[in-house]
């Protein structure tokens, strides 16, 4: 059963049940009201009859008959029995209606019950114990509420007609409602037929109204973006890894074959050293690809308050161990008055990896053995600039800086695989920031700037 059919079925069933129960309650309330109202009329009739009889001093036959004729039209098919304090019959109305069990009601009247209301077939039966001028009387009356039953029958027919009318309206409303609710889902399903990971810039249309469909479409588009990024990474990774690994592995094999034939011990030593470096470089490339994959899949990432200046100084210590002749000048802007300005929420290991890569990038591409790291806090952002002297990156290459395996003209003759900046960009983006490159022509500096949101108080 489709969602539209379920909505139609359940809404129609619920609405019909509520309408039916409501109409049944209305009919029941009016039925009880009719019975209570008519029984009260019978009770008033009995009391009036007892009062009239008690005030009549001579209870002769003609007077009783005239009384019966005078009162016969008050209630339809009415039968009234009046008893004295000894429960002996002293009056019976003229109607031919029969009270089946008057003695049973009469015996119950008195100490326990002052009045009894019940029914015999469609007739209302009422018994009353009543004192008048200190004398106890008992009255039993039975009558048929023709007018009340006719009104009840009219109400019943009216409710049945209204029920089927409401049922038709409910079905129409249910169909329209089910269509309106399910139509966006159907449209979404239709759109999904032409949307796949390989189709560029094709996403679900997000409705303007802020409802569950809006949330679902937005979450799906976010998921598609992540899937496309992962798919593109996988596609590029497989292509480039197969290409990039093929060449160094072939070179390694070729060099090993040459080393097997080499007789000179010095050349053999140099060859083994080069092989060791090339093999280590190959391992570094594989590790970099694994780290990028981990970042892109957000695997087991936790965020905490971290100090960026402390990370930079820790990475500086490690960098100087590898490149002791290279100097970094670290400058804190005077506008940074406390440590909170240097703190952000981020993943510590990944941020260390990104900072380390940017510092090594300065080392590898600087024309002088020095670089500058500048901290600045402005407009709720912490900016960290990594600047090193050297020739600038051509403008045509800047859009490709953060793409997998891209290496510009300034990378010629340098070892690497074009993955460092990719990893840095992924890490900074994951930590809620961004990274940009620009070349300061006047100073001849290549500058990578990290923008990270300051820690919220």
Walk me through what this model shows.
This protein is α+β, with helices and mostly antiparallel strands. Helices cover 53% and strands 18% of the residues. The chain contains 9 helices and 12 strands. The protein has helices at 3-55, 61-71, 102-108, 146-192, 212-261, 265-296, 308-322, 348-365, 420-430, and strands at residues 79-83, 89-92, 115-120, 123-132, 135-143, 304-307, 327-332, 343-346, 370-378, 381-389, 434-440, 445-453. The strands form 3 sheets. Strands 2-1-5-4-3 form a 5-stranded antiparallel beta sheet, with helices on both faces. It has a 5-stranded mixed beta sheet with strand order 7-9-10-12-11, covered by helices on one side. A two-stranded antiparallel ribbon has the order 6-8. β1 and β2 form a beta hairpin. The two termini are 52 Å apart.
Rg from C-alpha positions? 49 Å
Number of domains: 3
Backbone structural class: alpha+beta
- Span between N and C termini? 52 Å
In N-to-C order, the SSE pattern is HHEEHEEEHHHEHEEHEEHEE
The CATH architecture assignment of the largest domain turns out to be: 2-Layer Sandwich
* Residue-averaged pLDDT: 78
Mass-distribution shape: rod-shaped
CATH superfamily of the largest domain: Histidine kinase-like ATPase, C-terminal domain
CATH top-level class of the largest domain = Alpha Beta
Largest sheet: 5 strands, antiparallel
Beta-strand percent range = 15-25%
């Amino acid at each position: 059963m489709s969602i539209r059919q379920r909505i139609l079925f359940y809404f129609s069933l619920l609405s019909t049940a509520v309408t039916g129960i409501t109409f049944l309650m209305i009919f029941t309330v009016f039925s009880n009201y009719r019975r209570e109202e008519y029984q009260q009329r019978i009770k008033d009739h009995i009391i009036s009859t007892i009062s009239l009889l008690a005030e009549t001093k001579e209870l002769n036959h003609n007077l009783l008959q005239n009384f019966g004729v005078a009162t016969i039209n008050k209630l339809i098919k009415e039968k009234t029995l009046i008893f004295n304090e000894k429960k002996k019959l002293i009056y019976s109305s003229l109607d031919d209606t029969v009270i089946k069990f008057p003695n049973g009601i009469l015996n119950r009247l008195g100490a326990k019950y002052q009045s009894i209301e019940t029914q015999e077939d469609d007739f209302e039966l009422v018994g009353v114990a009543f004192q008048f001028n200190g004398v106890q009387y008992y009255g039993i009356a039975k009558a048929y509420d023709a007018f009340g039953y006719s009104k009840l029958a009219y109400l019943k027919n009216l409710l049945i007609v209204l029920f089927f009318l409401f049922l038709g309206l409910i079905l129409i409303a249910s169909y329209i409602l089910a269509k309106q609710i399910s139509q966006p889902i159907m449209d979404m399903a239709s759109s999904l037929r032409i949307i796949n990971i390989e189709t560029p810039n094709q996403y679900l249309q997000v409705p303007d109204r802020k409802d569950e469909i809006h949330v679902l479409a937005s979450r799906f588009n976010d998921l598609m973006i992540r899937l496309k990024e992962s798919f593109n990474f996988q596609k590029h990774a497989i292509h480039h890894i197969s290409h990039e690994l093929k060449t160094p592995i072939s070179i390694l094999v070729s060099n090993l074959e040459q080393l097997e034939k080499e007789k000179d011990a010095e050349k053999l030593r140099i060859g083994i050293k080069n092989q060791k470096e090339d093999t280590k470089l190959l391992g570094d490339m594989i590790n970099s690809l694994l780290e990028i994959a981990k970042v892109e899949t957000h695997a087991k990432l936790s965020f905490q308050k971290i100090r960026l200046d402390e990370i930079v100084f820790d990475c500086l210590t490690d960098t100087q161990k590898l490149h002791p002749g290279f100097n970094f000048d670290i400058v804190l802007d005077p506008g940074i008055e406390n440590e909170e300005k240097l703190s952000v929420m981020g993943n510590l290991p990944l941020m260390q990896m990104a900072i380390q890569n940017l510092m090594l990038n300065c080392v590898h591409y600087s024309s002088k053995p020095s670089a500058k790291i500048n901290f600045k806090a402005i407009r709720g952002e912490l900016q960290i600039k990594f600047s090193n002297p050297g020739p600038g990156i051509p403008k045509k290459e800047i859009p490709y800086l953060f793409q997998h395996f891209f290496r510009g003209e300034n990378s010629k003759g340098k070892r690497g695989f074009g993955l460092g900046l990719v990893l840095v960009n992924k890490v900074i983006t994951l930590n809620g920031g961004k990274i940009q490159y620009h070349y300061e022509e006047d100073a001849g500096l290549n500058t990578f700037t990290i923008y990270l949101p300051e820690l919220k108080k």
